[in-house]
Write a structure and sequence with these properties.
3 helices
């Protein structure tokens, strides 16, 4: 949005040319019958793709139930173990469920600061819960990534492959 109009025009032209070249190369490529991978490799390739789009980290976060009443003044503490553009995995002390329900389908507001120093505020819904010794591990899907405060952009830049 802050880029000069001339630069936007140049970038759009370059992208259009790149797409045209890609389509042309695709048409010129020899057609071969698709080969199906053996069933054992399917899971491996899916896991490797998932690993590529997921960053492992260990950062502290504060979280509150989405519809927390006045009784809920202080946020609970948790740790985000990995992060992707669609969700995260968070570990919380097993004492936290005594303050608020941590069941599949429950939504929470999560706030943290990424390792690059950027604040991240989002809403996520619990997709799965695994109880372990003294803690809960929760897989969470993002409810919404508000773009009005740049959350989507912040997360996208953080997730860029380096």
């Amino acid at each position: 949005e802050e880029i000069a109009p001339v630069l936007k025009t140049m970038i759009n032209q370059v992208l259009r040319r790149l797409l045209r070249m890609h389509k042309l190369l695709d048409k010129m490529a020899p057609r071969m019958p698709a080969q199906r991978e053996p069933p054992g490799d399917e899971k491996t390739s899916k896991e490797s793709r998932r690993r590529y789009y997921r960053k492992n980290l260990d950062i502290e976060c504060d979280y509150l139930p989405l519809h927390a009443g006045k009784d809920f003044r202080n946020p609970m503490k948790g740790r985000i173990n990995n992060l992707s553009m669609t969700g995260l995995r968070m570990e919380v002390p097993s004492v936290n469920p005594s303050y608020a329900s941590h069941e599949v389908g429950k939504s929470f507001r999560i706030e943290t600061v990424l390792p690059n120093g950027q604040p991240l505020k989002l809403t996520a819904r619990i997709a799965n819960v695994h109880k372990q010794e003294g803690r809960l591990r929760m897989g969470m899907q993002f409810h919404d990534l508000p773009d009005y405060d740049g959350t989507r952009k912040t997360l996208w830049f953080f997730m860029l492959h380096t």
